[in-house]
Amino acid sequence: MLEKKGRVIGLAISERRGTRKQGIDKALFVKDAGIEGDGHKNYFRQVSVLSREERDRIATRELLPGDAAENVLVEGIDELSKVPVGRKIRLGDEVELEIIQIGKECTDSPIHKYTGAPVLPNVGLFCKVLKGGWVKIGDEVEIL
Fold first, then answer.
1. Number of domains in the chain
2. Residue whose C-alpha is closest to residue 96's, from 137, 136, 128
3. pLDDT at 120
4. Whole-angstrom distance, CA of residue 82 vs CA of residue 46
5. Are 7 and 89 in contact (CB under 8 A)?
6. In what order do the strands lie in the sheet with 34-35?
7. CATH number at residue 69
8. Please, are residues 76 and 113 in contact by the beta-carbon 8 Å criterion?
9. In this predicted structure, what is the pLDDT of residue 112?
10. Contact call for residues 88 and 130 (beta carbons, < 8 A)
11. What's the chain's Rg over C-alpha atoms?
């Protein structure tokens, strides 16, 4: 059975898409836009979410938050990539995301060489921001 609650263990942003992201302690999610300061802001895939458990089964090396180019790394929801498109995810007390895509086209990305395998294209969730606000490391994550 899919666990419906977990916690945020990593937040990360980068100026450009397609690059490893740098970890941050808190992030401002902007409704209909994405995360302030991230290269995916105002892009159709506004936010990427990844399960640590799924990531660790695919990656061939130990990774820090953002190394697989994810914005949000969660722990405690093992089969996150099995949550269907259209479902919502709450982060902390305020932020609500809607899953718009599971996985994506696989390219010959330097990130895949670094992780040892294409992690985000296989088990990543791509979301749009329905309700904005601040999220910090340790916040609860809930599948709605």
1. 1
2. 128
3. 77
4. 19
5. no
6. 34-35, 26-30, 133-136
7. 2.40.33.20
8. no
9. 67
10. yes
11. 13
The pLDDT tens digits along the chain (144 residues) read 577 999 999 999 999 887 889 999 999 999 999 999 999 899 999 999 999 999 999 888 888 899 888 999 999 998 999 999 999 999 999 999 999 999 876 666 767 666 767 677 788 999 999 999 999 999 999 999
E-strand stretches of 36-110 = 47-51, 72-75, 88-91, 95-102
Please report the beta strands in the chain, taking only residues with DSSP state E, as ranges in sequence order. Answer: 5-13, 22-24, 26-30, 34-35, 47-51, 72-75, 88-91, 95-102, 125-131, 133-136, 140-143
Which residue range is the domain that position 112 belongs to?
Answer: 5-143
**Which amino acid is present at 75?**
E
Residue showing tokens 């061939």? 60
Residue 108: other Cβ atoms inside 10 A: 7
pTM, 2 dp: 0.92
How many residues does the structure list for the chain?
144
Q: In this structure, are residues 124 and 81 in contact, taking their beta carbons and an 8 Å threshold? A: yes
- The answer to whether the CB of 50 falls within 8 A of the CB of 73 is yes
One-letter amino acid for residue 59 of the chain: A
